[in-house]
Every structure is written in structure tokens, then in C-alpha cells.
Amino acid sequence: MAETGKYSAEQIEAMSNKLNENAGTMGVSLYPCSVPGHGKMFDMPNDMMEVGLGIHGEPGCRREAIESADKIVNTIMTKLQEVVKFTKEEPIVLLINNLGGVSQIEMGIIRSEVVKWCRQHSIQIARLLCGTYMTSLDGHGISLTALKVFDKEILDFLDAPTSAPGWHGADKLGRPETAPSSDKGQSIEVQTSSKGITLTKGRFLEQAELAKKCVLAVCDKMNAMESELNALDGAAGDGDCGSTFAHAAKAINERMKTLELNSAQQLLFNISEVFEQEVGGTGGAVGIL
């Protein structure tokens, strides 16, 4: 604001106060930071995480058993929604901050879970920032900050160019995506022929069971090819390709037992989710794509 020369000191102060009133931050860490020459700031059991810790390494409000990324994000976002009081009608700015010791892969997982949580709760993310903005030295944790967009000028300020080396630009995600409804024809149709099962354009709901059969047929083939794929992979790699895809096939089979299909998007999303959660290595990353 000051850089533009359009605002008085009083206006900048008023905006700063309003930003504080409409924002909230909460952090989680698996272990505390280490102060050079003094070691870790406090002891932390290996199976616990600190919830609500301060940016300077202050202990949090409680300790809990280590949870998965989706549960950690749910804990933080639920609390932020309670404090900041953002709703479906109000877009928010989200900042995912690396406290210093979190890898890029882990940050990517947290980012994915945050976006997923917002979409599940129909929360619009106007801007998403993810990276190392303010660390707690080498603290292995993250902090999430949510800000209600009470004034559209906030987005202009966030999007303004800067030469600050530590500032990573914000992503514009817009409104949460929703799965296409069955009456809009955004789907595929599965047909059988003498050559097997093929996919053609048409209504998906009418052919949901055949779509499942198609997926399960691929899973059966992956199971049957486990040894052969392992042998091929062993000639040039670590020999686990077949086992990886066989594991994926079993997980997809289990998902198909309870999945009620209502769109092609839902089917593909569930398959990619299985690969993301159940399959390791390169196969997991390829499956997500």
C-alpha cells in the first residue's frame, strides 16, 4: 500500500488492523527447531506432534499422536474456520508455510489436502500461496493461514510485482470444482463387442456397471502380469513394477465394491486417489496423473 503512494499512514494502519481481525494462523510440527549452539528447544517423542506451536519454537496448545496429512489439515482448517469464520459465500486467501525442515514432496501433499478440504466444504480459494515464507529455523512442520477477502484490493496487493527473493507468487484457483451431474452428459459409455470391452461417448450412468467391469478387467490383468512385469523391471530397475501394480489392482478392487458411480470424473478421481494413497514409487505418481 505504501509503495503506491495512494494511501495515508492512517489508512495503512486501518487496513493492517482489519487484516489481523480477518485472519488466523495455526501450526503443527513433528519436532521442534534447533537453535544453533543450543540444540532443540524442547523434547518431543518420536510418535507425537506439537499442535499450535509458535513460529519462534514455543510449545503448542497440545500434543497428539502423529496423524496422516488429511487429518492434520482437517484439524487445522476446521479450527481456522471456527476462528476466522469464513463461509461458502466468502473467498479466502490461504498461505501454506514451511517451518523450515519440510521437503517439497511433503509440502505438495499438504497443498493437495488443503485444496481437497476446501473443495469438499465448498470454500472458494481466491489465492493460494505455498512455500517457505517464515521459518522456525529447521522446524519440521507447517503453518496454515486463512484470510477472508473482505476487500478486493487485498488481491491486488498480493498480486503486485515485487523483487523480494523470499516471496513466492500466489496461485489463482477460483471457485471449487464440482463433478458434472448426470443430466449434462459429461460422461462415457461402455459397450461390449466381440473384441472385448470398449469405451465410447454417451451416458455414463446407464452403463455404470459395465464401466466397473472394464476397470476390474484391467485390475485382473495387472494381477496376472505381476511376475512378468517384475521380471521385465528387474532387468533395468528394482524389479517391483508388477508388485506395485498388483497392489494397486487389489486396492482398486476394494474401492469398486462400495463405489456408486455417477460420473466419469468421479470414477477417474477415485482411481487416482487409490494410486495417491496406496501406491508408492513412480507408479503412484504416474497413476495420479
What are the key terms here?
10 strands; cobalt; alpha+beta; Serine Threonine Protein Phosphatase 5, Tetratricopeptide repeat; Hypothetical Protein Tm841, Chain: A,domain 3; 9 helices; six-stranded mixed β-sheet; 2 domains; transferase; two-stranded antiparallel sheet; kinase
Give a brief description:
This protein has 289 residues and is an alpha+beta fold.
How would you describe the overall organization of this protein?
With 289 residues, the protein is of the alpha+beta class. It folds into 2 domains: 2-159, Dihydroxyacetone kinase, domain 2 (Hypothetical Protein Tm841, Chain: A,domain 3, 2-Layer Sandwich), CATH 3.30.1180.20; 203-287, DhaL domain (Serine Threonine Protein Phosphatase 5, Tetratricopeptide repeat, Alpha Horseshoe). The protein has helices at 9-21, 69-84, 104-120, 153-159, 208-224, 226-234, 241-258, 264-278, 281-288; strands at 23-31, 34-35, 39-40, 48-51, 62-65, 92-98, 125-131, 140-148, 188-193, 196-201. The strands form 3 sheets. The chain has a 6-stranded mixed β-sheet. A two-stranded antiparallel sheet has the order 2-3. The chain is globular, with a radius of gyration of 24 Å.
Number of domains: 2
What CATH architecture label of the largest domain applies? 2-Layer Sandwich
Strand content: 15-25%
Q: Evaluate the radius of gyration.
A: 24 Å
| Largest sheet geometry | 6 strands, mixed
Q: Tell how many strands the DSSP assignment holds.
A: 10
User: What is the fourth-level CATH superfamily of the largest domain?
Assistant: Dihydroxyacetone kinase, domain 2
The chain-level mean pLDDT equals 80
Looking at the structure, the CATH topology of the largest domain is Hypothetical Protein Tm841, Chain: A,domain 3
Low-confidence stretches: 176-201
What is the CATH C level class of the largest domain, in words?
Alpha Beta
The number of helical runs is 9
